[in-house]
Every structure is written in structure tokens, then in C-alpha cells.
Amino acid sequence: MNISTSKLRLGPLPKTETVKLTVSLTVTLKADLERYAALHAQTYGEPINAATLIPHMLEAFMARDRGFRKSRGE
User: Fold this and answer.
1) What string of DSSP letters covers 40-60?
2) Three-point CA angle 51, 24, 21, nearest 5°
3) Is 51 left (phi over 0), alpha (psi -120 to 50) or beta?
4) What is the pLDDT along the chain (74 residues), one digit of tens a residue?
5) C-alpha to C-alpha distance for 50 and 68, rounded to whole angstroms
């Protein structure tokens, strides 16, 4: 499968300080995350596991949520 980098919303990942948090996912969501991680690795040429993607995906989701931004006064 060949996909251009413009097809993925999540670009190359920055290095950041982290805090550990445990979450439960559905089997389907876990499988989708693993597929996304494989596609991300293929697109950007660096292996990545699904768990590493989660905080970046949540951050991108929250940054695009107008209701959340409005509640923060942005």
C-alpha cells in the first residue's frame, strides 16, 4: 500500500515529556491503532508502537474541538 504523507492527520511525532496513564480500549480500536501505527511507520520511515500514538492523537483531537477551545477561552 502506498499512501502520501498528506493523507495522515498525525505527522512526525515530537519528543515530549510524558506521564503514564492506563486506558482500556475495545478490541477493534486497538486493532485500528496498530494499523495506524504501521501506516505511520511506513509513511515516515520510523517504527512506532500504537501506545505512543495515543497522546498525540488526543492532543490533535482536543486542539480541533471548538467547544473545548471555547471553554478554555481561546
Assistant:
1) HHHHHSS---HHHHHHHHHHH
2) 60
3) alpha
4) 455 545 678 778 778 788 888 999 999 999 999 999 999 999 999 999 999 999 989 989 999 998 988 888 86
5) 25
Q: Which residues contact 46 (CB under 8 A, 6 or more apart)?
A: 12
Residue tagged 505527522 (cell numbers): 11
7-46: burial string, b at 16+ Cβ within 10 Å, e else: eeebeeeeeeeeeeeeeeeeeeeeeebeebbeebeebeee
Reference 52, options 24, 12, 3; nearest CA is 12
